[in-house]
Amino acid sequence: MSSKVLAELAPTGVLRAGINLSNFLLVSARGAGGEPVGVAPDLAKAIADRLGVDVRYVTFPAPGALADAVDEDAWDVGLIGAEPQRAARIAFSTPYVEIDATYLVPPGSALRDVGGVDAEGVRIASTARAAYDLWLERNIRMATVVRAASTDAAFDAFAADRLDALAGLRPRLVQDQARMPGARVLEGHFMTVQQAIGTSRRNVAAQAWLEAFVAEAKASGLVARLIGKHKVAGLSVARDAPSRAT
């Protein structure tokens, strides 16, 4: 590892890791001191250990806030979904895990597959600026997307306003399904949220180093072990080639 990489990733002497608290698959608990616990914090700690520095978690309530902070010198690496809108300012590694995004539909819904959701008159509840919401922004042409500030608020709007579909990560939608008897989670997925490690585009040397770190973390089984350690259902080690939304 070069001194340039260390200077870019730990300019303050510690690795400041941006963590998105709203992704319950990657942050599954909080420690005694309130620190995040889960796959993402552990992977950030592994990066810090490789660099030979301590880690400091910089937490954000939602992914959009984490992404916005890239130009504020608030974090050195950010563990977040890799999306084109974010990539304009954040250099992402290849993904280390991926999560299917699909829809929950209410009891009696005529919607049977993810492809049929984008239709005139269909209203989709979504969490604003989540990775899957950014996909909806780019790809939904006929349906109307109704955005809420959080996943809980999106479900509340879906239920209270009798919307036609709720977009989200499959594991969360399975939980929400239990709150609405007769609701169905549609098979398949409209996209795959790919979680990666990002850094400022200014950190040219760090980008290549993080890319190599993620490749090794997947190949060595580290990522799989972290998923097993935290007993996370619905989270998979990312494939080497980016998946296509279907």
What's the gist of this structure?
The protein has 9 helices and 13 strands. It is α/β, with parallel strands linked by helices and 246 residues long.
What top-tier CATH class of the largest domain fits best? Answer: Alpha Beta
Compute the number of helices.
9
Oligomer: single chain
> In angstroms, what is the radius of gyration?
18 Å
- Using the 3D structure, state the CATH architecture of the largest domain: 3-Layer(aba) Sandwich
Q: Can you say what the CATH homologous superfamily of the largest domain is?
A: Periplasmic binding protein-like II
Description:
- Residues about 240-245 have low confidence and may be disordered.
- This protein has two domains: about 5-95 and about 195-235, D-Maltodextrin-Binding Protein, domain 2; about 100-185, Periplasmic binding protein-like II (D-Maltodextrin-Binding Protein, domain 2), CATH 3.40.190.10.
- It has nine helices and 13 strands.
- The chain has helices at about 5-10, 40-50, 65-70, 85, 130-140, 150-160, 170-175, 205-220, 220-230; strands at about 15-20, 30, 35, 55-60, 75-80, 90, 95-105, 125, 145-150, 165-170, 185, 190-200, 235.
Sequence-ordered SSE layout with sheet pairings:
Elements: H1 3-9, E1 14-20, E2 29-30, E3 36-37, H2 39-51, E4 54-60, H3 63-68, E5 77-81, H4 84-87, E6 90-92, E7 97-105, E8 123-127, H5 131-139, E9 144-148, H6 151-160, E10 165-169, H7 170-177, E11 184-185, E12 191-200, H8 204-219, H9 222-229, E13 236-237
Parallel strand pairs: 1-4, 1-5, 8-9, 8-10
Antiparallel strand pairs: 2-3, 5-12, 6-12, 7-10, 7-11, 7-12, 7-13
